[in-house]
């Protein structure tokens, strides 16, 4: 019998729809896989076995009744633990939310449930999505299925690792500076940061409100597109949600082509700090795109070299305010409430114990950057850089349809290597951050293994806002050509664990 | 704290010129909160009108209440403000347990309305108060600190938090520095808050009941030596929550500042608490440095950009504003500015017009509300409108007087009965048997008896001293226990004594 965990989401959905397998069988297979390998990988913080099976039974009943099933009905999914789930713990990778059971579902959670996608559980992440390795989780790191001594990227390392270890065919991530794309790149999976406002942020615990964006993660471009369509679209509960039709991403993923397309290679994303094997695979992909009929040219985006600095002012500033609500008064951890201390002391003690070092670092950075007398120099200047980056993109998209670059300068680094060097860690997001600052869409998909370490390399495709479909059009073409070249999808080379 | 002997108000004003700034928070009467769909109804069980958004739960997001924005624009327009073409909300960051997100969603350097004015009447003169801005924000929850002596958080054993109020829309209206009020500063402050309250009520955007906390005032005050240009250091007296308190707080702070300055001291910029019992203020927390709220534009909300056509539509739909209406009524009623001011201060304008709408003549309606009823309200310590009598009932009493069924004294007794809960005017009249004695026979007998009993006075009247008739009228009224029509009694007396009236 086929190993159900090796199938794509589209294949699983088709088999359930045809009655070849049941949703319960699919769910049980994935739960068994989690049982077998997650002790090693640690992708999940919480597995909702009973909830998942109940949902699967409902899907099967629906099919038996002859009711119409959605395109992903019965397909299991791993949900990043940043989305609220009614009745199921939501930790955001932090001790500060210890014991909190959300009384409401995030819009993304609601849409997944409405589409009969089976939520297997909640995945590990850097605390409050601050990090690029998942080492900042209060609940311990996640291993990269390609090499368990290496990081699976971050902040959504649990989601990317669950895909690469075949614990789930679909996952949801969030991307504030690269937290979907960088983990996808280093685990040989596909991740998409939709246009800002494309996917509702309601119920997605905020890190940096103007940058955060939820998005789909999968092992194939088509699976990502199917999931994209389920979670995207206007939500009246999120004021920043775009009230326009969702770009036709599934159609684009089914008709991948780059023929006649103009593609720009971002000139600034190369040089010092870029691993040779990463650049080699990237160059080969550029050649491949030419062979497939694209016009490829180099495009300069001069403001991109200021993006990291601007990001590390804006994101901490917003987070310093967003995380102020964790004060021990209404939910989560409460430390020192022994009747002798003031409310202020309890808040301070709780925050001291409940937040990890990186979270504290960013709260302090942000508090400083917003202080009177510093605001203009820091937050104000960063906003100006943001405008410059937007202009760079606008100019670029006058000349080309999409931009491409490596997703991240290096392949997965060893756990612990950058843990004490925040600057080195921050560089992992060098190529992904400009998109968050400008609010447009981007995808990472695998483009090979680096010769020197045999680890996956990611190709980043960047499209203008609300042109998310272009990512899938190009991504599907690259994916098909590479499978042709290798004779199989790259993910099949991942160790079986 | 050193207690400084206050300087008399007159002495303070001889040396110093007061400068005021008034910040008024108005709770809007929208059905739902500013950023979520929760009810704003008062009096619900604690924490029953809450949701993830107004509790600030992780992941929740705000959505702007369109009616709140509309109300803010109406207030701005009525205050002669410019309305922003584009403005944003901002986060005001500070920690306090009753603030769910530990930031207040407010507006900072981009208020919805700015640069306006409000004209107020003080002692028959018009004083223009310049408005700096009116901006939208959300209210906090409510803390009840239990176990401390002062009811404040310091020293409390524990605190109870009610988030029903958290997220209720507020409009904060800030004046520019009010200069030139001189000795009338307390009256100007009171007149401004009074006028603002009337304005808000007339717009229908809030009931603006200060005693319910729907309108709250902070009084900033500083003194500068007479003739000086530079403002002195100000104190900020928080939560001055009645019209009378506004006046008292200004007066007290003028006297206190003067005392400190006269002693060669310096005023510290600080928050002060107002005490209703004696009208004094005491020091709250000292602001050693300006509190840093780290304002930044609220990234969870899109900018508010009211279309000009909409703004003009709202401008066109504004009701007649209170001061304009008052001036019109003043002329209609033939009152002096001073008299009209008393009517306004008593909160009687709407009651009088409502009584007139029920058919009473203006002078009668005004007479009752500003006389007997105002006296009762004052005695009972309630607002005029809270008395248990309706304009329709007052109008009915006026009608009974006009048709001659009641005289002034009986009318008074009828009103007394209504206030005592004995029913409407007609019921009270019936129950108490309050009818003017108009039976000519009975009255004639009473008059005859009075003339017989007071022969000397009767002679005087016959001799032409008509004024002496009052004594006989009094005797008849006494005999009829006040139920006679005094005018008719007088006619009968003169008639019987053969004298022309």
UniProtKB/TrEMBL annotation, chain A:
GO terms for molecular function: asparaginyl-tRNA synthase (glutamine-hydrolyzing) activity; glutaminyl-tRNA synthase (glutamine-hydrolyzing) activity. It comes from the Bacteria. It is an enzyme of class 6 (ligase). Gene3D superfamilies: Amidase signature (AS) domain. The active site is at residues 80, 155, 179. The keyword ATP-binding applies. Its EC number is 6.3.5.7. It catalyses: L-glutamyl-tRNA(Gln) + L-glutamine + ATP + H2O = L-glutaminyl-tRNA(Gln) + L-glutamate + ADP + phosphate + H(+). InterPro entries: Amidase (IPR000120), Amidase_CS (IPR020556), Amidase_dom (IPR023631), AS_sf (IPR036928), GatA (IPR004412). Residues 25-471 form the Amidase domain. Keywords: ATP-binding, Ligase, Nucleotide-binding, Protein biosynthesis. Heterotrimer of A, B and C subunits. Belongs to the amidase family. GatA subfamily. Allows the formation of correctly charged Gln-tRNA(Gln) through the transamidation of misacylated Glu-tRNA(Gln) in organisms which lack glutaminyl-tRNA synthetase. The reaction takes place in the presence of glutamine and ATP through an activated gamma-phospho-Glu-tRNA(Gln). HAMAP family: GatA. This is Glutamyl-tRNA(Gln) amidotransferase subunit A. It comes from Streptomyces iranensis. The lineage of its organism: Bacteria, Bacillati, Actinomycetota, Actinomycetes, Kitasatosporales.
Automatic annotation (TrEMBL), chain B:
GO terms for molecular function: ATP binding; glutaminyl-tRNA synthase (glutamine-hydrolyzing) activity; transferase activity. Gene3D superfamilies: 1.10.10.410. One of its GO terms (biological process) is translation. This is Aspartyl/glutamyl-tRNA(Asn/Gln) amidotransferase subunit B. It catalyses: L-aspartyl-tRNA(Asn) + L-glutamine + ATP + H2O = L-asparaginyl-tRNA(Asn) + L-glutamate + ADP + phosphate + 2 H(+); L-glutamyl-tRNA(Gln) + L-glutamine + ATP + H2O = L-glutaminyl-tRNA(Gln) + L-glutamate + ADP + phosphate + H(+). InterPro entries: Asn/Gln-tRNA_amidoTrfase_suB/E, Asn/Gln-tRNA_Trfase_suB/E_cat, Asn/Gln_amidotransferase, Asn/Gln_tRNA_amidoTrase-B-like, GatB, GatB_Yqey_C_2, Gln-tRNA_amidoTrfase_suB_CS, Gln_synth/guanido_kin_cat_dom. SMART domains: GatB_Yqey (SM00845). Keywords: ATP-binding, Ligase, Nucleotide-binding, Protein biosynthesis, Transferase. Residues 350-497 form the Asn/Gln amidotransferase domain. It comes from Streptomyces iranensis. Allows the formation of correctly charged Asn-tRNA(Asn) or Gln-tRNA(Gln) through the transamidation of misacylated Asp-tRNA(Asn) or Glu-tRNA(Gln) in organisms which lack either or both of asparaginyl-tRNA or glutaminyl-tRNA synthetases. The reaction takes place in the presence of glutamine and ATP through an activated phospho-Asp-tRNA(Asn) or phospho-Glu-tRNA(Gln). Its EC number is 6.3.5.-. Heterotrimer of A, B and C subunits.
């Amino acid at each position: 019998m086929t190993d159900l965990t090796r199938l794509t989401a589209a294949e699983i959905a088709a088999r359930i729809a045809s009655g070849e397998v049941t949703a319960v069988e699919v769910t049980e297979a994935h739960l068994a896989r989690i049982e077998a390998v997650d002790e090693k990988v640690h992708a999940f913080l919480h597995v909702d076995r009973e909830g998942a099976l109940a949902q699967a039974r409902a899907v099967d009943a629906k099919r038996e009744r002859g009711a119409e099933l959605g395109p992903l009905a019965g397909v299991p999914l791993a949900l990043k633990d940043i989305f609220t789930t009614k009745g199921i713990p939501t930790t955001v990778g932090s001790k500060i939310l210890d014991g909190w059971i959300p009384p409401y579902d995030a819009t993304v959670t609601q849409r997944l449930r409405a589409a009969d996608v089976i939520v297997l559980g909640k995945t590990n992440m850097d605390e409050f999505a601050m990090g690029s390795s998942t080492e900042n989780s209060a609940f311990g790191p996640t291993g990269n299925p390609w090499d368990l001594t290496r990081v699976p990227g971050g902040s959504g390392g649990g989601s990317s690792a669950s895909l690469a270890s075949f614990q789930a065919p679909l996952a949801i991530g969030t991307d504030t500076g690269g937290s979907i794309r960088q983990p996808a790149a280093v685990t040989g999976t596909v991740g998409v940061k939709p246009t800002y406002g494309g996917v509702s942020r309601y119920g997605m615990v905020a890190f940096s409100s103007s940058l955060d964006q939820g998005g789909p993660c999968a092992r194939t471009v088509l699976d990502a597109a199917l999931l994209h369509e389920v979670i995207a679209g206007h939500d009246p509960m999120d004021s920043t949600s775009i009230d326009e039709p969702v770009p036709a991403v599934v159609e684009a993923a089914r008709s991948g082509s780059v023929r006649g397309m103009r593609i720009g290679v971002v000139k600034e994303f190369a040089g010092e700090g870029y691993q040779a094997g990463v650049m080699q695979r990237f160059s080969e992909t550029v050649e491949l795109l030419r062979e497939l009929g694209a016009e490829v040219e180099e495009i300069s985006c001069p403001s991109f070299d200021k993006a990291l600095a601007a990001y590390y002012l804006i994101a901490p500033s917003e987070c310093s305010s967003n995380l102020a609500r964790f004060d021990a008064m209404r939910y989560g951890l409460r430390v020192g409430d022994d009747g002798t201390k003031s409310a202020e002391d309890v808040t301070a003690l709780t925050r001291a114990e409940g937040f990890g070092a990186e979270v504290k670092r960013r709260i302090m950075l942000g508090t400083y950057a917003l202080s009177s007398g510093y605001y203009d120099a820091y937050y104000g200047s960063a906003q100006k850089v943001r405008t410059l980056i937007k202009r760079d993109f606008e100019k670029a998209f006058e000349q080309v349809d999409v931009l491409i670059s490596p997703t991240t300068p290096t392949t997965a680094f060893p756990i612990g290597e950058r843990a004490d060097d925040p600057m080195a860690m921050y560089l992992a997001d060098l190529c992904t951050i400009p998109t968050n600052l400008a609010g447009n869409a981007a995808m990472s998909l695998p483009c090979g293994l680096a010769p020197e370490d045999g680890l996956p390399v990611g190709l980043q495709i960047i499209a203008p806002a609300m042109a998310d479909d272009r990512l899938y059009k190009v991504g599907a073409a690259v994916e098909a050509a590479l499978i042709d070249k290798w004779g199989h999808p790259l993910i099949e080379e991942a160790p079986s664990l | 704290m050193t207690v400084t002997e206050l300087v008399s108000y007159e002495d303070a004003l001889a040396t110093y010129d007061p400068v005021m700034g008034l910040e008024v928070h108005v709770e809007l009467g929208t059905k739902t909160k500013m950023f979520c769909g929760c009810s704003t109804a008062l009096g619900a069980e604690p924490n029953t009108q809450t949701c993830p958004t107004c509790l600030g739960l992780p992941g929740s997001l705000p959505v702007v209440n369109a009616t709140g924005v509309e109300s803010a624009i109406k207030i701005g327009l009525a205050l002669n403000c410019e309305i922003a073409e584009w403005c944003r909300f901002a986060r005001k960051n500070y920690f306090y347990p009753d603030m769910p997100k530990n930031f207040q969603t407010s507006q900072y350097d981009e208020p919805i309305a700015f640069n306006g004015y409000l004209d107020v009447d003080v002692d028959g003169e018009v004083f223009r108060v310049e408005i700096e801005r009116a901006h939208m924000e959300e209210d906090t929850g409510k803390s009840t600190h239990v176990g401390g002596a002062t009811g404040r958080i310091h020293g409390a054993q524990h605190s109870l938090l009610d988030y029903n109020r958290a997220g209720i829309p507020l409009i904060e209206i800030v004046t520019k520095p009010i200069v030139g009020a001189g000795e009338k500063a307390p009256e100007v402050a009171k007149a401004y808050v009074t006028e603002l309250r009337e304005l808000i009520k007339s717009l229908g955007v809030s009931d603006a009941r200060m005693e319910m906390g729907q309108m709250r005032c902070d009084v900033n005050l500083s003194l500068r030596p007479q003739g000086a240009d530079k403002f002195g250091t100000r104190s900020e007296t928080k939560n001055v929550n009645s019209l009378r308190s506004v006046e008292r707080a200004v007066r007290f702070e003028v006297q206190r500042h003067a005392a400190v300055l006269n002693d060669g001291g310096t005023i510290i910029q600080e928050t002060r608490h107002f005490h209703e019992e004696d009208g004094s203020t005491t020091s709250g927390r000292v602001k050693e440095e300006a509190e840093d709220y780290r304002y930044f534009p609220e990234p969870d909300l899109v900018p508010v950009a009211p279309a000009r056509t909409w703004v003009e539509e709202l401008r066109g739909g504004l009701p007649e504003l209170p001061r304009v209406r008052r001036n019109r009524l003043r002329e209609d009623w033939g009152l002096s500015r001073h008299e009209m001011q008393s009517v306004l201060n008593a909160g009687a304008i709407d009651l009088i017009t409502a009584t007139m709408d029920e058919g009473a003549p203006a002078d009668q309606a005004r007479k009752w509300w500003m006389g007997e009823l105002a006296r009762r309200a004052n005695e009972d310590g309630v607002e005029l409108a809270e008395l248990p009598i309706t304009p329709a009932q007052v109008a009915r009493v006026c009608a009974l007087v006009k048709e001659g069924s009641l005289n002034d004294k009986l009318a008074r007794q009828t009103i007394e009965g209504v206030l005592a809960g004995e029913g409407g005017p007609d019921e009270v009249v019936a129950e108490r048997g309050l009818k003017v004695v108009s039976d000519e026979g009975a009255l004639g007998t009473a008059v005859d008896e009075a003339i017989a009993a007071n022969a000397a006075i009767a002679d005087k009247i016959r001799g032409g001293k008509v004024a002496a008739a009052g004594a006989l009228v009094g005797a008849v009224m006494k005999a009829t226990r006040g139920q006679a029509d005094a005018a008719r009694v007088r006619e009968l007396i003169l008639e019987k004594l053969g004298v022309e009236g």
